[in-house]
Amino acid sequence: MGLGFGIIFSALTTKYRDLSNLMGFGVQLWMYITPVIYPSSMVPEKFKIFLFINPVAPLVEAFKYGLIGAGEFNPGRLLYSVIFTLILLIIGVILFNRTEQNFMDTV
């Protein structure tokens, strides 16, 4: 997932320079949306769907379950994360290949 986002943002940053400033803010915001510093059991049931739309949340929960026994292990949500990652990587490679010819013109 990191590779997919990295390829997409590196391709877009060559044209839109301010995107690098936005990326730092986005990573910090994404950390608070992901249940790293709080347990997912603390989130009310009506908001859990919004929590698990985040593709990193099932991965974090699975690691918590495996390491300390807390958290949730849901294979369906892990499959969602894997599919999201593969789609993101494919989109990143396609976007990078399309913008690759113009890198030297914009840099």
Describe how the helices and strands are arranged.
Elements: H1 2-13, H2 19-33, H3 48-51, H4 57-68, H5 75-99, H6 103-106
Helix pairs in contact: 1-5
Characterize the structure shown.
This protein has helices spanning 2-13, 19-33, 48-51, 57-68, 75-99, 103-106. It is mostly helical and 107 residues long. It has one domain (2-106). The longest helix has 25 residues, at 75-99. The chain is elongated and about 50 Å long. It starts with a helix and ends with a helix. The mean pLDDT is 87.
What is shown here, in short?
This protein is mostly helical and 107 residues long.
Distance between the termini: 26 Å
Overall geometry: elongated
Average predicted confidence as pLDDT: 87
Structural class: mainly alpha
Could you give the count of β-strands? 0
Number of domains: 1
Order of helices and strands: HHHHHH
Estimate the strand proportion.
under 5%
Summarize the main sheet.
Answer: none
What's the helix count? 6
Helical content band = 55-70%
Radius of gyration, in angstroms, nearest whole number: 17 Å
Which regions contain 5 or more consecutive residues with pLDDT less than 50? none
